[in-house]
Specification:
two-stranded antiparallel ribbon, 6 helices
Length: 212
């Protein structure tokens, strides 16, 4: 089979598998009590890079031989895994503390869920998503281009420049750090709102007594 066709078919099969597992078992959904559960940015990011790299690895094995994964590829998977782990730890901490969680609100749509936190769509998630999509598409194009022309299996998977890895790491790190505080911030805002409503109710009660 043509290496490029093999790569695209493998990529398609893996995407279909992820979609099926999400529909059946909520693979890409947040840890949530809502129905439907919102999509998790961290899980989608990990699935995105896992599918791309696994598709490249499988197609290279069957057309060129077993490749050695470039160090930058391993770092890339490590960034995605660390982001998912940090998000899960933050969720577990918020649940144990009994905080009101934005993840327990019903999911709206795929992209809105990925780009939103307790306060709505925000810039750090948008930035991280844009960078990951851009580099992911570049990675796919590089593999599809070099598969038919490279005789060396190690020459197919592209190497990502260290500065670009830092860029992806900073984007994911910013998301992970801010995610650990978003529910606490929303909890604080909720308490302030409740106190303001209580003060307003007391003021209304006093006015009613004065008029009576």
């Amino acid at each position: 089979m043509n290496p490029q066709i093999l790569f695209w078919c493998t990529l398609l099969v893996l995407v279909i598998a992820v979609v099926y597992l999400d529909l059946k078992h909520g693979l890409l959904k947040d840890l949530s009590s809502a129905d439907p559960k919102p999509y998790s940015y961290a899980r989608v990011q990990l699935a995105w890079w896992s599918v791309i790299i696994l598709a490249a690895f499988i197609s290279i094995i069957f057309s060129k031989g077993i490749p050695s994964l470039d160090q930058s590829t391993l770092i890339l998977l490590g960034i995605s895994s660390a982001t998912t782990a940090a998000a899960r730890v933050g969720d577990a901490s918020d649940i144990s503390r009994g905080l009101v969680r934005s993840q327990d609100q019903k999911g709206e749509s795929f992209f809105i869920d990925l780009l939103s936190d307790a306060n709505g769509v925000n810039i750090q998630r948008s930035q991280a998503l844009a960078f990951n999509v851009t580099f992911g598409i570049w990675f796919i194009c590089q593999v599809a281009h070099y598969l038919p022309i490279s005789s060396d299996p190690n020459g197919v998977i592209p190497s990502i420049d260290s500065n670009n890895l830092i860029l992806l790491g900073l984007s994911s790190g910013t998301y992970a750090v801010l995610k650990t505080t978003e529910n606490r911030s929303s909890q604080k805002q909720l308490r302030i709102q409740e106190q303001a409503e209580l003060v307003a109710d007391e003021a209304i009660g006093k006015d009613a007594k004065g008029q009576g």
